User: Fold these one by one.
Assistant:
Number 1:
Amino acid sequence: MSYLANSWYCAGWSSELDSGTIGRTFLARPIVIYRDSHHETVALDGRCPHRFAPLAKGVVKGDTLMCPYHGLVFDRSGACVHNPHGDGHIPPNAKVRSYPVVEKNGAIWIWLGDPDEADIQQISETSWLTDKAYASVTGYLKVHANYQLVSDNLLDLTHAPFLHANTVGGDPEDSIGQQMEIDFHMDDGNVIHSDYLVRNMRRPTPQMRPLWGDRPGDFRAEMTWRPASVQELDIRMSPPGAPKTEGVHVPSLDYLVPENDLVTHYFFAVGRNVAIEDDEQTEMMGRFARMAFEQEDEPMIRDCQDLMGTTDLFSLQPAILKTDIASIQARRILNKLIKQSSRNAKAGAAMESA
């Protein structure tokens, strides 16, 4: 499978770097990330070019990273700057690739494509994650399925009343069919919005009851998708007929990164704008989020992947529902961007060889 390399991907939460290096595989490439002596983030290929040892198990020494196997030392550009053996000669191929990497809004972002195309402004603003007006919790899961299946799951929330009846889903009688209003639209060319509204829902979802109470209200779930695989979900409960800002706001983030065709890194965050000093509520909020995906979504997505036997959804000629519009459009946009990026890369290579 091809991936969209020219995109910002979440590589982890900033707090993960407080205890040392991060070693993960993104887009089938092993990567190591660390902070140098100036507290600046560095991202390099994760395999030592000597015997292909995992650099993530190495030691950060000032601005450099020392391989744990034979002690070669690499600087932030990926060049080997010290060979402790023999006369210290450094072979010309003793280097690894470095990648643009930044920390923003509590997350680490890496660009795996053409570095000249890396524009930090493309990283969406999620200020609530570091806003003191919100309580928040972050987490990470590894999903054994293709990342586009995970994205499909998040973009079509009509599964929630069936798969998440006791966690984040509402009663099917209140929240699907004619009771649910769906607004699908796009902006900036490639950004998808899939918004759900249930007016005067009799009972909030189990996740919202501790925050809103067991009373009616207008329920909103507004999802935004940005390529390659960033989802931002705003869940709100407000008095019937009132503006959505006059109630409980539970925003969440879902950052998906393919490790390979069949494994996905899933970084998530969830917050709330009420009872922000209640640590017990924060713990329960994180537990609900993890339970919903780890015990309900992930097993189902994995079962679907196993039964599909392929990562090419359309090759199986799936039945398409009206509520699939957001996930289908996201797949089309991603496929378009991957093909466009591939054409540009080939054109650039042709110009260099001319």
Note: The chain has two domains: 8-122, 135-337.
Number 2:
Amino acid sequence: MFPLRDSQPSGTIPIVTYLIIAINVLLFLFEVSLGDQDLSTFLRNFGLVPEVFLQQFGPYEVFTLFSCMFLHGGWMHLISNMWALFIFGDNIEDKLGHFGYILFYLLCGVCAGLTQVFMSQGSAVPTIGASGAIAGVLGGYIISYPTARVLTAIPIFIVIRLVEIPASVYLGFWFISQFFTGFASIAREPGEEGGVAWWAHVGGFIAGLILVKIMSFRRQSEDSSFNYIER
């Protein structure tokens, strides 16, 4: 299933969402400009390596929790992530405000990274990609706009059907698939976790579910504090 658009309008211009997309694209173009050896070194230095994170924990390892979420392993990896962020990110930015959205996005990415580290402690493979943070955006979306509709392209043999699916169904199915695929990956030997960081998706999504409620409540409380009675 591939999402094409959602039915939830945004009341503001999603400046932060566009900025995050631009940063990811520019950094990926930089990656493409590197040779194979330099790229491998770059990703190892700025990706999140669970084994290194746990064994050499310090300020630099904490930094990689953030740097890894702006790097990608290929064009499809980048495009699929940025497209999902483009569709769903504007509404969460609208809900939380620009600054709140930045904080939300980064916190979801950090929670996603820590989840992946915990679930693959012996892995020496760098974890990269914005999908953990974007999973947080999806978690925030399913809580905030469960009745919104997602226009989805569904391939059936050689025919592609366009179907509007409730956000709660589309994103709920996505989360369940990530969870069970991640659960199946536990059977792998330590250090063989290359491919997709399923647990980062799970951790980011759950973080988004929780953080969007906390941060939206806080924003509503701050807005209401400006109310007054003139006499």
Note: Residues 189-193 have pLDDT under 50 and may be disordered.
